[in-house]
Amino acid sequence: MNLILLGPPGAGKGTQARFLVEERGMVQLSTGDMLRAAKDSGTEMGQIVADVMARGALVTDEIVIGLIREQLETVKASGFIFDGFPRTLAQADALSDLLAEKGQTLDAVIAMEVDDEALVARITARATCAGCGEVYNDNTKPIPADGKCTKCGAGNKFTRRADDNEEALRTRLMEYYKKTSPLIGYYYAKGQLSTIDGLGDMNEVKAAIAAVLAD
Ligand code: ADP
Ligand code: ZN
Fold first, then answer.
1. Is 82 in the pocket of ligand 1 (CB under 6 A)?
2. Which residues belong to the active site?
3. Which tens digits make up the pLDDT trace of 72-128?
């Protein structure tokens, strides 16, 4: 079972992918996480992508397709969750070719619908535990007063992403509408699209995804 989580920045793709990993043993392939790792590794590619990401623009198709190809070649899994990929029609075509080469299928594309105001509120309030990646939110799930992560128990290091500011977010939203939202039509036409409401709380969204996967 291979699945794409599709939706604008802040829709909750990463949060839901983590649930699927924990509960179903699927493997999350987040191009955003891979690019942030490349950035932190100080490689040449890392330097190129760091600036693009900080502005909220899209990294080139060539780079992200390369990252996904590498993962599909080396990681064995009975199920991949594509999180933040594909983001352009060219990436979607490339994914379809890569899966076909591996004799794999794409089983579901779940579009998570959230309105823009909620996205801005979620993203500008977001902080992540540097130890385990657990996501906190100033409004709905604040960092514990003792500064210790509820998930991993590590203390005091919570990071905010360089692109979680209003200006970069405006660019990310525009990139989403111009380049990624056409994928909704693309997968609809292929008969693979399911749409869910991403606005409810995490567990409601989780249940909606489970219902799609049970079909
Ligand atoms: P979000 O969905 O919250 O915007 P991600 O972590 O998925 O966050 O992506 C962060 C940034 O990484 C994007 O704004 C973009 O610069 C880059 N990126 C991630 N995935 C892709 C992709 N598939 N194609 C191009 N750029 C990407
Ligand atoms: Zn933690």
1. no
2. 13, 87, 126, 161, 172
3. 999 988 899 999 999 999 999 999 999 999 999 999 999 999 998 888 888 899 999
Whether 31 lines ligand 1, by a CB cut-off of 6 Å, is: yes
Atom 23 of ligand 1: nearest residue by CA position: 85
pLDDT recorded at residue 33: 93
pLDDT of residue 122: 86
Give nearest CA residue, ligand 1 atom 12: 32
Decide whether any atom of ligand 1 lies within 6 Å of the 172 Cβ: yes
Query: What is the rounded distance in angstroms from the CA atom of residue 84 to the CA atom of residue 53?
Result: 13
Q: What are phi and psi of 109, to 5 degrees?
A: -125, 115
